[in-house]
User: Fold these one by one.
Assistant:
Number 1:
Amino acid sequence: MMHIEHITIEAADAEAAEAFYTTAFGPDLPFEFRASEEPTSGFRGFTLDLIASQPANVDLLFNAAVDAGAEVVKEPVKSLWGYGGVIRTPDGVVMKLVSSSKKDTAPAEKRFDEVVLLMGTGDMKAAKQFYTDQGLEVAKSYGGKYTEFEPGKGAVKLALYPRKSFAKTAYVDPAGSGSHRIAVGGSGGSFTDPDGFVWEGTGV
């Protein structure tokens, strides 16, 4: 089964971007970095989400990101689905720091348990079929509202979401144009999906 090995984040200053993520979240993120001057404006069509086990961990991650230079998009709050907040990194990536739990059950730690790449699509049915044809297995699917794929042995879970719905979940204007400024390092071949997201085969 195809899986994601890493995400390459493209930034005008790759060294500064790497320093931010390492300072905020530690050295264990499955992210790589490279310089890019590709034009991009507005929302880039995806979020990178860190999933933690409890609200206290979310708070530590959120505060560390803000201290390292992230912009606050939405302060962490409780909701029907759990607890979380949204930031925009200095290089322009929107990140959600969330937990499905609303209560703390252990001492707070600045740690996350899962990384999710949530990509916006203009056609859920077509995108879902495209990725199953590439070798991903569907884990959850709710019609045209959400699709989540099995991560396999990969370091990042992939999920699809209607692009226009990001306004409600990530608290950002879904409008944007130009480069996504990321590339997905996958165990399959190299390709570009129907929404313009580039995958680079790792051969793993």
Note: The chain has one domain: 4-200.
Number 2:
Amino acid sequence: MHTTIKLLICCFLSITITRGTAQSHAFSKAIQTFKAQDDKQMPPKNSILFVGSSSFTKWTDVQQYFPSYPIINRGFGGSTLKDVIYYADDIILPYHPRQVVIYCGENDLVLPNIGADVVLDRFSTLFEIIRKHYPDIKITYISMKPSPSRKNFRTAMEAGNAGIQYFLSQQKNTSYVDVYHNMLNEKGAPMPHIFMADSLHMNANGYKIWQKAIEPHLLK
């Protein structure tokens, strides 16, 4: 009887650990790709580091939007702030950037039981990790965008954006980029022509809005 119970406990713990490891390493392929790129040619120090989720991943021509700025793009699609924190040693700390630009949080909010307070807590954790290693660089956050496919989460996104904006206002050498309201029409709804067919990711029209909003915040 005792042997059976021990076996059941061991099986449960094994499954739990395996699931946790799988979740933690869900993006290991993307991270390994970044590492391979760095091994081949390390990006120059003092660049501007873009880090976050798929809105950066799909911005494959981001350097063309900001030709006067050296950009490193380390966005990996589907990531949450928790994932960016997990991989900070790989996608943030090696680069010695002059500025870190973050777009993340949207994917956090669509998970069960995750609200604006959790997003703010995760962002502040990420912020402190960056500040610990790079106390003097500029940290910029791009607001969560109003994707039509995620209209049910707009209230939470607005609250999350407001919380992060206030948090940054209390910190030195930071900025907050409001793309959220720039992507709405006169009726307060997301402009459909700036999104791809999935109503989640942006097309070139959306990225042009981002370019105009972000560029004044970038360091020369």
Note: Residues 2-24 form the longest helix (23 residues).
